[in-house]
Amino acid sequence: MERARTMIKKGMRRQIVLHYILVVSLALLLVEVIFLLAIRTNYYDSVYNKITTHISTAEYFQKYQILGEHAPFQLQDLLDRFSLSNTELEVLTLKGDMVTSSTGFQPDRTITTSDVPEAAGGSIGRWVGKQPGTNESVMAVSKILQIHGRDAYILRYLTSVEGINEDLLNLTLLSIGIGVAVLAIVVLFSFGLANSIVKPLNNITAVSAQMAKGRFNTRIKGNYKYEIADLAATLNYMAEEIVRSNQTKDDFISSISHELRTPLTSIKGWSETLISGGYDPEETKLGMGIISRESDRLIGLVEEILDFSKLQQNEMKLSIGIVNVKVLLQETILNIWAKAEKKRIVLLLECDEAIYVKGDANRLKQVFLNLVDNAVKFSHEDSSIVLTAQRFSASETAIIVRDSGIGISDDHISRVRDRFFQVDALNGGTGLGLAISQQLVELHHGKIEMNSELGKGTQVTVILPLTDELPSSMIVTEGQL
Q: Main site of residence (predicted)?
């Protein structure tokens, strides 16, 4: 009892079972009603066709063989020639008054059923109903008959349909029994179908509850199919991504802690040293320089994190203007030149003239500073880095940063633009540079493409839309000519 109550408790299982029962019940009801109506119509039509065929045959013989044109007319001859076994024949006037019948009863009775006026109108009348007095189910078929072209009578055949109704009742009971059996099978089938859907969902729900409690190492197991398999795979993928994201976050916290500790240690050490006094001006200048550089380094780390936060919250504001790409890349090279010089790396610029894009010059400069800085960081000493700007299509320009450094493996190339991800954590940084660059380029309606081969170098291509507008400083008015 408890199990049955559990099986039909509110939920998807109950809804599936009830919907199946409802749909199948309506379908069975419709089929059975149509079937029984067809059988009833067929039975009744067979009786009606038998009587009408007999009337037509008997009428032919009456006209040409039995009653000649001048032969005396007798009602008994009419009854004899038109009688039909197991059927009462009544001879009526056109008004429905009974003249005689094959049973000899109630000759003075008036018939008022619908078949009589139909026959008087020239068609074959048909009526099914209860016989007055006996309350027996009968069928009446009536037709007008002309005698010698003068007298007109209505021949009315009356036959019982009790046997037909009994057969129909038996068929109805049989069809109901079959319908109940089919419905019982459908109910069992629907429970099986509901369980095949609900049980996997219950399993997925249970595992999801474990994930919600932070147990992301749990996985949904089972050989599911179709949409449920997709759902299970999606949740497993979500758990894997959360685990990976948590690991990346932990790595980021560890990395950023190290990045912040190093300059803070230098600042604190030199601050305490300088406070103690007793140092000559050269040592004091050296200490102040270290404090200044490490402070700038801290500011850069904090600004990078703040930029990423703004991008994530869609709060980054761009100051849009017309940007000369060549000038932008020249400024980028000047900013990175000192760092490249320490590794004896040559920075080369190859740029077509008159390439302009619409965007925020400072943010685009931030993108290329990051790309060139990465190229310097992962390039060998005494190598070169080439910056190329050229028209990519009629409406786009491609800015390429190409180095011949250590390259990126196939496993890492798809992840280098993920937030907090670092190919080599020993080189420092937050792992946000490329993620920020990616989003800044997308804010400028562009895209970044990366190609790399381990041990041979990396090529990063930034594609931006061109603009036909010129900077206001280059527009010469008629008065200035």
A: membrane
